[in-house]
Automatic annotation (TrEMBL):
Predominant place of localization: mitochondrion
MF-aspect GO terms: double-stranded RNA binding; ribonuclease III activity
UniProt-recorded name of the protein: Large ribosomal subunit protein mL44
The family this protein is said to belong to: Belongs to the ribonuclease III family. Mitochondrion-specific ribosomal protein mL44 subfamily.
Alphabetized InterPro entries for the sequence: Ribosomal_mL44_DSRM_metazoa (IPR044444), RM44_endonuclase (IPR055189), RNase_III_sf (IPR036389)
Lineage: Eukaryota, Metazoa, Ecdysozoa, Nematoda, Enoplea
Mitochondrion in keyword set: yes
GO biological process: RNA processing
Coiled coil: none
Domain of life: Eukaryota
């Protein structure tokens, strides 16, 4: 699918990833620039310049070998399904099955454990035409159903962990890619009657306490104002030790409680 190739391309050609590759190759120690220490933008641009120099001095094949050996190898041990996170997988699964003249998917609870505890586990399987397409576990029935729908899509597209294996080195160089250039990339937006909404909430880093404080001061407090408990703080504040009444230092006795 085109979306998966696009997601993999954006992952390995991101500024942070190219800068990491550049540092691993030792380019950081060879640069001579004014803005020291060098940022990710300069490091990624340096790696792109090296690829362009190889393409200019040698040929396209040598530049491709360099990219294959040092850039594409970053996809090793990377789950390609986590690079592209979309919303409403059950809706997409239903539309794909209807397009292929198949029945409506039916989520069913296969097994569960600890329903009345703090950490329940539900295993939901999705059936279609009396066949199990995929299953997954979750802390709620809704989450388990969503993860099971994603598992079904992986099986339909052939994007399981065993099937996604990249070939590098001498074996990878023997693969003729010219036959794949003319093959059209399939897009889900063109096949389905609705637009797929992507979500990057899964990859957003959580806020640190310092960032939460800054976000509260700059955004939240301007909108909702000062909380009522902060405005009444001076009525309940006991004061310093010099202003505190001596009665506060007297330990309560059992008969007075």
């Amino acid at each position: 699918l085109f979306c998966f190739f696009r997601a993999a391309h954006d992952f390995i050609t991101s500024e942070e990833k190219l800068a990491k590759i550049s540092r691993q190759l030792g380019i950081y120690d060879l640069l001579m620039a004014d803005n020291f220490p060098y940022n990710n933008s300069l490091m990624s641009s340096s790696l792109r310049s090296i690829v362009g120099a190889i393409l200019f001095d040698e040929n396209e094949a040598e530049a491709g070998y360099f990219v294959q050996d040092f850039v594409l190898t970053q996809l090793i041990n990377v789950d390609i399904n986590e690079l592209w996170y979309f919303k409403e997988p059950l809706k997409i699964l239903t539309a794909l099955l209807e397009k292929n003249n198949r029945g409506t998917p039916e989520p069913r609870i296969l097994r569960s454990s600890g329903e009345f505890t703090v950490t329940p586990v539900y295993v939901v399987g999705i059936y279609c035409d009396k066949k199990l397409l995929g299953e997954s576990a979750g802390e709620s029935v809704l989450i388990a159903t969503e993860m099971a729908a994603r598992d079904c899509l992986k099986n339909l597209w052939g994007l399981t962990e065993n099937s996604m294996k990249f070939t590098f080195g001498e074996q990878g160089r023997q693969i003729d890619l010219h036959d794949f250039y003319e093959m059209p990339n399939q897009s889900l937006n063109s096949q389905l009657n609705f637009k797929i909404e992507l979500s990057d909430d899964l990859y957003k880093e959580p806020l640190t306490p310092q960032q939460m404080t800054i976000k509260y001061k700059r955004e939240i407090e301007k909108t909702i104002g000062t909380p009522y408990r902060r405005r009444l703080w001076h009525f309940f504040y006991p004061g310093t030790l010099h202003k505190t009444s001596p009665r506060r230092f007297i330990a309560p006795k059992a008969k007075t409680i």
